[in-house]
Amino acid sequence: xxxxIGVFDSGIGGLSxxxxxxxELPFEDFVYVADSGHAPYGERDPAHVIARARxxxxxxxxxxHIKALVIACNTATAAAIHLLRHEQPDLxxxxxxxxxxxxxxxxQTKRIGVMATQSTLDSEKFQxxxxxxxxxxEFICQPCSGLAxxxxxxxAGRVQALCTQYTSAIGKLGxxxxxxxxxxxxxxxxxxxxxxxxSLVGGAVTLLDSGTPVxxxxxxxxxxxxxxxxxxxxxxxxxxxxxxxxxxxxxxRWLNIKTPTQYINI
Length: 266
Ligand code: DGL
Description:
The chain is of the alpha/beta class. The protein folds into 2 domains: 5-96 and 211-263, Rossmann fold (3-Layer(aba) Sandwich); 100-208, Rossmann fold (3-Layer(aba) Sandwich). It contains 11 helices and 10 strands. It has helices spanning 15-24, 46-64, 74-87, 100-106, 118-122, 124-132, 147-153, 156-169, 194-201, 211-224, 245-254; strands at residues 5-9, 30-34, 68-71, 93-94, 111-116, 138-143, 182-185, 206-208, 236-240, 261-263. The strands form 2 sheets. A 6-stranded parallel β-sheet has the order 4-3-1-2-9-10, with helices on both faces. Helix 2 crosses helix 3 (74-87). The longest helix is centred in the first third of the chain and has 19 residues, at 46-64. The model has no long low-confidence stretch (mean pLDDT 95). Bound molecules: D-glutamic acid (DGL).
């Protein structure tokens, strides 16, 4: 079916999910909304995030007639996916959650660090996920206030300082008994600090994000509803609220594509 897939985040973080979506679904069109004018979500009231998720979904449906929606943001998924699914029962909606399940499966030491926004960690959805994995591993949760904003603004010095602060606060990292051997990147912005994080935590620690599982889940959902496209001349549109600086730089840097960007007032 030749309608685009809508993808959104508070800013550029969701591009880490879009990278995986493009690899998994190369014949699809995408419309991406970077809600930079209303970021960061992770340090705002859930009511604010719900209102933004509703406004963006409405925009993507009305203006772009999307066939499915990927909420490329852990914070917005935790706050709003259940409401959006309830309000838009005819729209397939795929969300992101921190990769705790694969981490529990693959960890040898069974000690797993989770970096996420305060809002994600506080959410009922995340707490339920933790409870469902009780007994399988120990999760050490680290709220990373300011990190998404620093990545968004491209402030490398601040990104480095915050990554240093949070990885040392989380505890001993490594592959030995009692050490954290997997660090879950529970915010879609954090994969863009992967190099800094990996050099801080060392090669024995695996960094786990949610890009590939979300992309695979999106394929499964589209396949099940016969919504997959198969055209070669795909198109991408990047929309933003607020400032254009981060989305311009990020699409070129992270996706290696120069494509139209459009300011939207929603
Ligand atoms: N990228 C978002 C997430 O996955 C949130 C970043 C923000 O705080 O706006 O949680």
